[in-house]
Amino acid sequence: MSQTEKKIVISASRRTDIPAFYMDWFMDRIDRGFFxxxxxxxxxxxxxxxxxxxxxxxVFWSKNYAPFLKAGFDKILRKxxxxxxxxxxxNSTSSLLEPEVPFLDERLLQLRLLCxxxxxxxxxxxxxxxxxxxxxxxxxxxxxxxxxxxxxKVSALGISxxxxxxxxQYRKIEKRVQFLKSRGEDVPLLIDIKSEKKIExxxxxxxxLYKKGIELALxxxxxxxxxxxxxxxxxxxxxxxxxxxxxxxxxxxEGKRDYGQRAKLGCMCTKSVDIGSxxxxxxxxxxxxxxxxxxxxVMVKKGNKGASL
Length: 309
Prior knowledge:
Blueprint: E1 8-12, H1 18-21, H2 23-32, E2 34-38, E3 45-49, E4 55-62, H3 66-71, H4 73-80, E5 83-89, H5 104-118, E6 123-126, E7 132-134, E8 140-142, H6 147-156, E9 161-164, H7 171-182, E10 189-191, H8 195-210, E11 215-218, H9 222-227, E12 234-236, H10 242-249, E13 273-274, H11 295-302
Parallel strand pairs: 1-4, 1-13, 4-5, 5-6, 6-9, 9-11, 11-12
Antiparallel strand pairs: 2-3, 7-8, 7-10
């Protein structure tokens, strides 16, 4: 590789939870030295060389690192020569919103182990998304109750960034809710709240985090960010940042803005190659608000009302 050539970043993955469910597949492809990646929109497939001399950083995204940590995949990959970076989504415990994720204390233990193994600078906490919802009784609730507890634990580990956003209103989520209700299940109705309320929430979150040495970053929330007049401790998020990886691990890394992401909505990410697949890698966390492809969506498409989760 020439001195001017930039190494690429692998995202594993925005589209599903690879550390929780697909690490055997991932490691098989690593051993083979390549991934076949199909663009979900134009269906064009490209072969991606993932030999260590071609890859600058592998970025993992998960809500449950237990299988990953138990097998020691981080240690194996680092020994092979890969730099690793971790997004860990830790929200308040809610069986209505995230029915299949482990209990909060278990996830916080995973976070500690992840930091001990890889260093806290390589780990980012995502409290994502903030959800407001109406229960069957008509009561409006949210998932913010566990935020202070999580922030306390995160701060003690030396993690310096929290990324958040508000739950989006996707058509696939509406279909998901309708399907679950048709099965007689108690499904909350996600609701949007006014911009003024969102600003109030973000400022409260930022103030709490500031006291603990944690920066709050908004992911793809450009309008909300623009509406906030005083932005103390609040930034736009680059969930994948070539500059951060260069500072952490040195060496040439791709640093151009990734306009293939939600740039108009405020995504500041730099370029990466996402090796996950919506079709091949459905997520078994089955989060109600997920924009990706939970297993429940496979059932929705089949209209399989008799199936179980």
